[in-house]
Amino acid sequence: MTHTAHFKVWRGDAEGGGLADYDIEVNEGEVVLDIIHRLQATQAPDLAVRWNCKAGKCGSCSAEINGRPRLLCMTRMSVFDPAETVTVTPMRAFPVMRDLVTDVSFNYTKAREVPAFVPPPELEPGEYRMMQEDVGRSQEFRKCIECFLCQDTCHVVRDHEENKPAFAGPRFLMRVAELDMHPLDAAAESGLDRKRTAQEEHGLGYCNITKCCTEVCPENIKITDNALIPLKERAADRKYDPLVWLGNKIRRRGE
Amino acid sequence: MTQPERQAWDVVVVGAGGAGLRAAIEAREQGARTAVICKSLFGKAHTVMAEGGIAASMGNVNEGDNWQVHFRDTMRGGKFLNDWRMAELHAREAPDRVWELETWGALFDRTADGRISQRNFGGHEYPRLAHVGDRTGLELIRTLQQKIVSLQQEDFREFGDHEARLKVFQECTITRVLKDESRGEDGGAVSGVFAYERESGRFFVIESPAVVLATGGIGKSFKVTSNSWEYTGDGHALALLAGARLTNMEFVQFHPTGMVWPPSVKGILVTESVRGDGGVLRNSDGKRFMFDYVPDVFKDKYAKTEEEGDRWYEDADNNRRPPELLPRDEVARAINAEVKAGRGSPHGGVFLDVSTRMPAETIRRRLPSMHHQFKELADVDITAEPMEVGPTCHYVMGGVWVEPDTAQARGVTGLYAAGEVAGGMHGSNRLGGNSLSDLLVFGRRAGLHAAQYALGLGGGRPAVDPGTVDAAADEALRPFSAGAGAGEQTAGDSGENPYTLHQELQTTMNDLVGIIRRGGEMTEALQQLARLRARARRAGVEGHRQFNPGWHLALDLRNMLLVSECVARAALEREESRGGHTREDHPEMDRQWRRVNLLCRLADGGDDTPFGKEPAGDAAAGPGRGRIELVRHTTPHIRRDLLALFEKDELAKYLPDEELFQ
Amino acid sequence: MSTGTDPTTATDDPGEAPGGARRGVYAPSRAAISAAHLRTDRWWLAPAATAAGLLAFIVYSTWRALANADYYAAPYVSPFYSPCLAENCEPMKGGPNWALFGDWWGLSPAVIILIFPLGFRLTCYYYRKAYYRGFWASPPACAVAEPHRRYTGETRFPLVLQNIHRYFFYAAVPVAVILTYDTVLGFRDEHYEWGHMGLGTLVMLVNIVLIWAYTISCHSCRHIIGGRLKHFSKHPVRYRLWGWVGRLNERHMLLAWASLVSVAVADLYVYLLATGVFDDPKLF
């Protein structure tokens, strides 16, 4: 069950680089990351790659395999024809550091721009009561392992570097949705309107819901249908729906 | 040599897993400027792999639970070798640590009345584990990470700089804890750390009077392990080299259920929740063999028949739990014995089955990541067929010998340790779920005391000696000049391949100091370790310092070899079987060993680097001349009110007579 | 920069670079790969098929909507012409022709009403994806570089108007009610006798079920029915409805295509009857 596969792996750094060819042994049940490790141990000891858990739980080994954003550890070799060339490159939306390692600091910057959970001031630790049906939506988004494949594939920043300052990307728009749907988040009481800021500060309008983020998500989170579109609808509540606006106005007066 | 860049911080936390992040949050909230240094990206720590839950006696599901019951379970699980004070603090403080996570945004699964739901786990008398499906560790890390971001957002509002008081140095490795020998206790006082950036290979020094080690475990010294590449025992080794002692290093937990097929994923964890939620273990005859493996000390606490065990899931008050939920060491040994007796599964494990126990929909909801993991990695649908599982190296109970209340490494002023790198809390065997709570309880304590110590020093801080910085830089650069003698690298000879050395080390530890141990094999292991150590001195790498994984591994080898020697030496010394230490040649638990802790410390000349003196003669001269020496330490008596929580009969199984009648 | 989390975004703006050649994945900081993408699968198939399908429908529906003929074959009315709101409509007994627009309307009466379903589908979250990918190539497929120099998404006029999708949803509901009414009228024979059913009734029945399923499964509907709530536990009925709509919503794409085809088929069926190609087969 062992065969020799042909690999092309991008080697290089910010100065330049290209696809290097390797012929390497592949055994039954292996994933692409196993092959990269075998390359390190036998042919290319200085081949740079990020990885941690090797079980699809940490989201470190993000790269592009045959042009598709994927986790190296969750891509089984058996999905390829033995005669097929397997091409592995770093994520192409982020600046490259070396070989398969990219500078993902864009994502950490964006994470800081989303205001954190606001605890309800009247509740002490241990007094939180939340129903399962109320936490379910946000829990789906908290499955995110931050592999940043959605950020990588999103054409808004992948194809337009100039949009990076204005656009948080699917992962962090989903974070906004997660907090807005959190049953005890007290942002509104503290004067922070997450629905409005989603559009005005995090660039929700750039998203044209073409669903690539959902397609690449290794956790199968329905990013577009469950986070981004509901967030767009919530923003529309605030800005484009006079009926809702009027209703809120009247209710507020009634209180 | 030009001196590397220096920065000054109040507290340095090494490691960004649960313990490290909790320590950093606490230190920052105490007002200390805190730096976190981690080998991976922020948020990728091994804690994300924890699946089952956080043990805390909140009593949300069964009101009978309280900290005393939790303490009792922890001591039983650790076969009474635990540092009882740590176990007490842990059981008392765990609920507060979990509740506080909710105020930072964590979303645990809920009970019907909206509290945090709690699940059953091996060794826990009541449902106790706060959880989120089977991805609790991810929730924990993300919550702590987001709390850190929120503190940084506060600092940004105040100072205009996110990193004014709390900064994460990601993808950096510490190779030395630096000390000022003229200060503190006889072990000297910590003055900073020496580190390199993985990306650029650039060295830097952080001057800091307080260093919190939170580096996790040592599993990468074993071949079959559930641990990630980061688990190279860095904190253990850094502490040893800084003069601290390690305790209980012979106790290594082999998780009973790791994947066994395909080979590339061998060792990856299958969460204990599978059994907590109803999964059962069967051998190739289809028999639920765990009923045959209930040890005497647990005989009256576990079900005798399958019917009773099955009833327990519905009615826990009137039935006893099934033996699949025995502590991990018992289950791991049982699986090992079944496989040895020829009743294993095709790939050398046993069968773990939920498919016949729960509807497919329930399995997908309660065990989503297990379902996903088997589907994606092994092409097995766990809702339709059983999993094949076998023991995998999972956790080291041993670690830095610390003061229970402050988490300070005994004898080294300014050095703290929390989480897996600290020893004592779990005794000879850790209960599932007690790890995440340990991280939070002692992470907070370490951060608190480190900050108080650092802030209390005022201006007179221990100094970083430029000489030690040079020595650390020399040591770190050695792999580039290895194999060629006097620092010149020749094209043909780049020394030993670090990957090969690592594989040999893993095989040695796995085969000779693994789950079942024998005196002769461990002596052989020590000899092999000595040979590997000599070869590791010549481990060489090609290329340059920018993100060079070969170089990083060559540096990590030092740590793995040191820690492996601790494990082997302590395991050879302890002539009994207890918890995570099973001796085929001494199969019984011996009450006389209950109060004995084996402490590992660096032997004279053990630091065979530019730091220490070269050892006289050949370093490979045999097990008697290693770098580690053992010291026997007798632990203090367990406090009376804590002892009173147990029945006399039960205590008589664990405690020597003089302790019983004290 | 590995030590911190410093922003390194947009230090030099490649869109503004001289010659404008080094944008997106070719930006100087990215891994140097000359190919726009390295996908080896047939990624172009989905956008091509989408574009072809939509084009076919546009051509067909434009022809039929402007034809102003052959849209009524008793008792069936084409969904393109219902309700018929001008005086130049064909008389349909009991049918939805109310001459609200009077006699000044000279164009095809379909144009009046088709605005609403057209707007509903044009702003639909699924169709947006379909035509952004299929027609605009923005992006053509995942991780395939798009050809555009700039991209502002739905932040500016006119695409910011996509946010009014919910109004078209509000409008689509009465249209669907009227089409339901048409379907009920289909249980007559050509002499307007009740209690009959032909193949055409079946066609209309399938069509109206699909129209409703598509309408209800709309993302705006999902939001209005329950998605906008913060606490489902306080609104158990809406929570349940939200769950049902959510399950339909997962099949929104499928329903979008199925209802598009069924509308065209229903219209074609009426056309064939009206032009006398064949007679409606009677079931009872």
UniProtKB/TrEMBL annotation, chain A:
Q: What is this protein called?
A: Succinate dehydrogenase/fumarate reductase iron-sulfur subunit
Which InterPro entries does the UniProt record give? 2Fe-2S_ferredoxin-like_sf, 2Fe-2S_ferredoxin-type, 2Fe2S_fd_BS, 4Fe4S_Fe-S-bd, Beta-grasp_dom_sf, Helical_ferredxn, SDH/FRD_Iron-Sulfur, Succ_DH/fum_Rdtase_Fe-S
Q: Which UniProt keywords apply?
A: 2Fe-2S, 4Fe-4S, Iron, Iron-sulfur, Metal-binding, Oxidoreductase
Tell me which NCBIfam families the record gives: dhsB (TIGR00384), PRK12386.1 (NF009052)
Query: Known PROSITE patterns for this protein?
Result: 2FE2S_FER_1 (PS00197), 2FE2S_FER_2 (PS51085)
User: What organism is recorded for this protein?
Assistant: Streptomyces lycii
Q: Pathway membership of this protein?
A: Carbohydrate metabolism; tricarboxylic acid cycle
Where is the 2Fe-2S ferredoxin-type domain positioned along the sequence?
Answer: 5-92
**CC cofactor:** [4Fe-4S] cluster; [3Fe-4S] cluster; [2Fe-2S] cluster
Q: Which family does it belong to?
A: Belongs to the succinate dehydrogenase/fumarate reductase iron-sulfur protein family.
From TrEMBL, chain B:
**The protein's name:** Fumarate reductase/succinate dehydrogenase flavoprotein subunit
Q: PANTHER family given for it?
A: SUCCINATE DEHYDROGENASE 2 FLAVOPROTEIN SUBUNIT, SUCCINATE DEHYDROGENASE [UBIQUINONE] FLAVOPROTEIN SUBUNIT, MITOCHONDRIAL
Key words, A-Z: Flavoprotein, Oxidoreductase
Q: Which residues cross the membrane?
A: none
Where does the FAD-dependent oxidoreductase 2 FAD-binding domain lie?
10-436
Please provide an example of a Pfam family that matches this protein in its UniProt record.
Succ_DH_flav_C
Q: Where do the Fumarate reductase/succinate dehydrogenase flavoprotein-like C-terminal domain residues begin and end?
A: 502-600
Question: Which organism encodes this protein?
Answer: Streptomyces lycii
Keyword set includes Ribonucleoprotein: no
